[in-house]
Predict the 3D structure of the following.
Amino acid sequence: MNLKDVKAVKELLSVPQKIAIIPHKNPDGDAIGSTLALWHYLKNRGQEATIVSPNDYPKFLKWMPGNEHILNFETKNSQALSAINEATLIFTLDFNHFGRTGQLAPILEASKAKYIMIDHHQSPADYAEITYSDVAMSSTCEMVYNFIEFLGDTDKVTSEMANCIYTGIMTDTGSFKFHATTSQTHRIVADLIDKGAEKTAIHNHIYDTNSPSRLHLLGCALKNMVILEEFRTAYITLSQEELDAYNYQKGDTEGFVNYGLTLEGISFAVIFIENKEEGIIKISFRSQGDFSVNEFARSHFNGGGHDNAAGGRSEVSMEKTAKYFVSLLKDYKDKLIA
């Protein structure tokens, strides 16, 4: 953030506001962690703040301090609508286009509130009065820490905030292994631990709490994995029938796509997950090295994200989607094997 934006934020927060904080649809650890951390910060400053999530999110994120105050738009519709419609200031976190909020998009577009965007994805839209966008950042949670630092308030980071911010940084960096994890990321994490982030407990909440059905679903996913050594690529398919057979719950497939990248010689991993209710195939892309899955997803699957982690979607069958995906690889062979 530049000095002009910092001054503008300070002026906005110097008077009482009705604030709505919005994560993207299907929020992950970074989205929930960043919104909750900001919520705690604003509440501690005496502001009236409410988090409105477009829909539900995984059970393994619901331990975070303040989670019980999040309004799920699908189940608490009237309260959520009131929070947005009455807002004088809206923070949008971990997304940079209203389309990423699903059914909230037209409501946000119609709002007369001032907007502050905090996000680390590429190609931000220009809806916000104040845009803090940095694609080099490991996570939106790291940016929320920086945001608080810009306002001169890191001494006000509580243990609740530290746990939320740590969670988002840990999940979005793949437990600190992704390229965007910098020395500054680690310095922030060290400060969060000093301020009360319970690193072992957080890791256990996120990664070490499995149900038998989730592990069986993982076995199914790994059995379905197709390895294309010629293109250094591996992909997984999961049909709606397979999800139903293993009692799929939201968040159960989190991290499955990364298994492909654990294979020697594989630099591009993909998972295709059928969602019959929405009539789409949801796609997650991961890569190692210089191959940009953001560009690949934007060019072919109505998606985008980061250079090494992106998402997309397809509106044709699983068979046609996978066949189309494989047909594209020959055009990217030079980049994939570089």
